Amino acid sequence: MLSKSDGEIVWRSKLEAIPSVFARLFYVAGLRNREGAYREAGLESKVPIGIADDIIRDSHLICFRGWLSMGLQHKTEDLRPYLASLLSPRAKSGQGWEKAWADLFRDLIPSDASLTEIKLFLNTASIVQRLVDEE
After folding, report:
1. 3-state class of 45 per DSSP?
2. What's the DSSP call for residue 36?
3. 3-11: average pLDDT
4. Fewest C-beta in 10 Å: which of 7, 38, 48, 83?
């Protein structure tokens, strides 16, 4: 088994291979189960499960804050290719699009985020949604 610091290095290199900050955030948030624990078999094979959970939990907050700290134009540019890979233009035109968007962003919020960060994230998501929809 690796030390926590070596596990963090391995994990960081895996995340850095994901080209979009938003895609990294989406990936890491998707590793959280219903109980709030983070599970990823590759990392768990290298460090104990509790350490893997800590590493992934920390990276979730780092990815979240990283996306949050980007400028609005950079966020939109970062998000555009990710959305294009998921949705056809027709899918964005339905009434369910706004709810799906809101649900998506809510699911990305780490449990350790502050209330201020959560509000800023959701407000920013709404603005970015409008910018992407206008294209």
Report:
1. coil
2. S
3. 96
4. 48
Radius of gyration of the chain (CA): 16
Separation CA 43–CA 25 (nearest Å): 17
30 token code pair:
């998707």
The model's pLDDT over 91-134, given as tens digits with 9 standing for 90+, comes to: 555 556 667 777 888 999 999 999 999 999 999 988 887 777 67
At 101 the pLDDT is 74
Question: How many whole angstroms separate alpha carbon 53 and alpha carbon 75?
Answer: 27
Neighbouring CB atoms inside 10 A of 109's CB total 18
Percent of the chain with pLDDT over 90: 65
pTM for the whole thing? 0.87
**One-letter amino acid of 125:** A
Of 32, 37, 57, 35, residue with least CA distance to 113: 57
